[in-house]
Specification:
The chain has a single domain, classed as Tachylectin-2, Chain A (5 Propeller), CATH 2.115.10. By secondary structure, it is mostly beta strands. The longest helix is centred in the N-terminal third of the chain and has 4 residues. The protein contains 1 helix and 20 strands. A 4-stranded antiparallel beta sheet has the order 1-20-19-18, with no helix packed on it. A 4-stranded antiparallel beta sheet has the order 2-3-4-5. The protein has a 4-stranded antiparallel beta sheet with strand order 6-7-8-9, with no helix packed on it.
Length: 286
């Protein structure tokens, strides 16, 4: 269970650009991916783009996992929020759900929003429903959502808002639900480690079937948007995770690991360029 060599790590295979940066410079980003396989074997990818026009969440499809065709997109303006970040796409018995990261205009608050549609194209015009997981001094974003046909699980990044100017701090909570709408927050399962490279917090980005996980961490407020990837393993107590020692394993953020029917994995992650822009890259690990 603790064999980190079995966890796919960025940089151990050649990478390709799946979605280029929208422009040069800082805050010009393509990334924050989530991926799943369609029944026909195609890859469905959800990612965030940030540029001069604002934020948008894009849904795209690919037959080879590298070259994507846009199916639909949702802008932050159309959703009525200030910004969007990572979203989670889930297939249900009656259609699709898209769980959004939504920034409250004029505040540091974030909340999880839900769109539902019978088909993927319909998500673009579906109404946005606000879900409650937090208290008055907490912001929640960047969800990982799993549905096995009956039960629902979510791992969500929590940002405390109790100290003005320190909202960049982060940890990960675990939540469960009977319907994917009303959630039970079971508390923090992965948190900052004082004095370590992830002293400012830990944001879970992918959970493998056996419970091992990858997360984003950073040491200081100045490293906001410069997160790196670390590894975590189950502790054997509930949903709790333990960060592995040894520092970050890759200088990327929002790592998504998609298990393939062949037994291999395809990785998607947000990578920084020298000009400050971020691009979405992919690697195939057989």
């Amino acid at each position: 269970m603790n064999d980190i060599t079995a966890i796919p790590i960025p940089g151990l295979a050649s990478s390709e650009v799946a979605v280029p940066a929208p422009a040069e410079g800082t805050q010009r980003w393509a990334g924050a991916p989530t991926a799943m396989l369609d029944p026909d074997g195609a890859t469905l990818l959800t990612y965030r783009v940030r540029d001069a026009a604002g934020d948008r969440v894009v849904l795209a499809r690919s037959d080879d996992g590298v070259r994507f065709e846009t199916l639909t997109e949702m802008t932050s303006k159309a959703l009525g929020v200030a910004m969007v970040e990572r979203a989670a796409l889930v297939r249900t018995a009656t259609g699709w759900r898209l769980y959004h990261s939504c920034a409250e205009p004029g505040t540091k608050a974030w909340w999880i929003g839900l769109q539902e549609s019978r088909d993927l194209a319909g998500l673009a015009t579906a109404s946005l429903r606000r879900l409650e997981m937090e208290g008055p001094l907490e912001a929640f974003k960047d969800p990982i959502v799993r549905h096995n046909g009956s039960d629902w699980q979510a791992w969500v990044c929590r940002h405390p808002l109790d100290i003005p100017g320190a909202e960049d701090r982060m940890s990960t909570i675990y939540a469960t639900s009977d319907d994917g709408i009303s959630w039970r927050n079971h508390g923090t399962i992965l948190a900052a480690r004082p004095g370590e490279w992830d002293a400012r917090g830990a944001r879970l980005t992918t959970v493998l079937p056996d419970g091992r996980a990858c997360y984003d961490g950073r040491a200081t407020p100045a490293e906001n948007w410069l997160e790196r990837t670390g590894l975590a393993v189950p502790t054997g107590t509930g949903a709790q995770l333990r960060a592995l020692d040894g520092g970050p394993v890759a200088d990327v953020r929002y790592l998504e690991v998609l298990a393939l029917p062949s037994g291999g994995h395809r990785l998607y992650y947000e990578a920084r360029r020298r000009d400050g822009a971020h691009e979405l890259r992919t690697e195939l690990h057989s």
